[in-house]
Predict the 3D structure of the following.
Amino acid sequence: MNDESALLEAARRFDNKALAVIFDTYAPAIYRYVLRLCHDPVESDNIVGDVFARLIEKFAVGQGPRTNLRSYLFSIAYHLVVDGARHNHRLTSLEVVMDVPSQLKDYSVDTQVDERNLLDVLRFMMNNRLSEIQRHVLILRFMEDFSLQETAAIVGKKVNHVKVIQRRGIAKLRKLLETRFWPDCKKQSET
């Protein structure tokens, strides 16, 4: 029996130490994931609480994960964020959350482009130019380091569909960045 199986078995018996280990291990990562999506620290904190409340509810009725607790918890978080977005029909602008100046939209190639500004623009574009599912997949894959299989399980799609979503999201970001920072790049490659 591996450590996760033993931990889950103890948590199913409502062992306070096991539940505390699960919370301490996974809550910070889930909070960062949710915050990247809803951009509201209070809402993110509430969703993290709801994730663990649902886990305990599942344990109370003899259900819940038998393996891969991390994917299970992120799946709950994903569904809570999606449900919240459907309910609220709004997401806070990334500019407000990150305090990115409005001039960033008109960022010039002539201006010194450092890595920080490029990342800020990339985050802005992810938030405002990608679909909700593309954002989720790219965050899970590249910021949270989930595998294709884990990401597929979390978002409720087949692995091949996740690959397509990921490829389209990356292609869209690449196109937006090329247009934004290197508008002459496409012209030169066409000649």
